[in-house]
Amino acid sequence: MNSSDSKLLKKVSQLERKLESGISETEREGYVPNKYGTYDSLLLRNKLFEMYSELVNKHPSEEYFQYLQASSYWRAKSYAEALKIYDQVILANGLYRVASLKMQSCILFEMEEFEVAEEKYELYKQEARAAGENVWREKVSDLYPDS
User: Fold this and answer.
1) How far is CA 99 from the centre of its chain?
2) Residues 23, 38: contact at Cβ < 8 Å?
3) Which CATH number fits domain 3-143: 3.30.450.40, 1.25.40.10, 1.10.287.130, 3.40.190.10?
4) What HEC string does 63-121 produce?
5) How far apart are CA 98 and CA 12, in angstroms?
6) pLDDT confidence of residue 147
7) pTM of the model
8) Exposed/middle/buried for 144, CB within 10 Å: 0-12, 13-18, 19+?
């Protein structure tokens, strides 16, 4: 990641904080509902989507940016878009796979797709357990290399 990407990521973080600090408790012009029961500035939300798209387009293999992008769509209650992006992260089979499975199960639960949500959650638990066991094995082999 170069310095212009770092600056863009910093702007994204600032914009997220601005979005969260500028929520409205009541519906009003220029504000749209979010998943927390409050309202976000539509202008700031759309700008955030643009910035994440720019990061993801510049770095299509960077799962972290995709994961963050999906989370912003989830906040916006754009469930289909969030699920699609989380699917891409899951298919990449990298560092954010397990967390994305959990996020998908949460979204599906919010959508009242309880059966599918439960399946995703069970898969998340299996993979989280396996990942934890792998970390444990690595730590043990680091401590006891001859065993």
Assistant:
1) 8
2) yes
3) 1.25.40.10
4) HHHHHHHHHHHHHCCCHHHHHHHHHHHHHHCCCCHHHHHHHHHHHHHHCCCHHHHHHHH
5) 24
6) 55
7) 0.84
8) exposed
